[in-house]
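Postdoc handover notes: sequence design on the structure in folder B. Input tokens:
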């Protein structure tokens, strides 16, 4: 079969192409008490280790985006494979977020997803408007990690990770 021709990038092609990049899935939460909000993301990236800084890219107009900008704080919960329903819940526009959901809390009081693989509380280190997204660099203040398998996302579908059975490598980066 002939290779498709290169063509000028547009939003639909960008979404379809970047969907081929398998990612984990996380929930970004911000705000406390009744004003808490959250959304599903795959744009989580580790930026540097010392200091510990991560990045999230949040669409303009989402309630969570405004809350992160207003409070200067957010939390990240990296989901386990069995938490697909939570990923769907937090990706539904206008849908219920915390009703009937058990959360865990750290120093900041921002709700985090119970039994998530990783929970991190962050201060906004810096923020940039990039096109229709707000990119937040988060200085990680508090962090905890559990054993388990992460939820994966590829080409619009959820799944989990199966390794090739090779020895673990001491990757340095
Ligand atoms: C697997 C997955 C990953 C997503 N990643 C992002 C992301 O990185 N940034 C983003 O702005 N929206 C992302 N979304 C879409 C938001 O979760 C969705 O638009 C959400 O409803 C926004 O919150 P709102 O309802 O308060 O606007 C993702 C959705 C899914 C299902």
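Designed sequence:
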């Amino acid at each position: 079969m002939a290779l498709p021709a290169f063509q000028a990038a547009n939003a639909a092609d960008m979404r379809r192409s970047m969907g081929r990049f398998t990612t984990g899935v996380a929930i970004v939460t911000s705000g406390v008490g009744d004003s808490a909000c959250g959304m599903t993301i795959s744009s989580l990236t580790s930026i540097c280790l010392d200091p510990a800084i991560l990045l999230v890219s949040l669409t303009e107009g989402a309630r969570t985006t405004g809350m992160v900008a207003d409070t200067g704080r957010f939390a990240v919960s990296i989901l386990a494979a069995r938490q697909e329903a939570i990923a769907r819940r937090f990706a539904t526009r206008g849908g219920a977020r915390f009703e009937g959901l058990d959360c865990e809390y750290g120093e900041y009081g921002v709700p985090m997803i119970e039994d998530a693989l990783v929970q991190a509380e962050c201060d906004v280190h810096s923020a940039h408007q990039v096109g229709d997204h707000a990119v937040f660099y988060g200085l990680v203040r508090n962090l905890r990690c559990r054993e388990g398998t992460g939820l994966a996302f590829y080409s619009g579908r959820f799944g989990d990770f199966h390794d090739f059975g090779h020895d673990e490598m001491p990757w340095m980066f």
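Context for whoever picks this up: The chain has a mean pLDDT of 95. Don't rerun without checking with the PI first.
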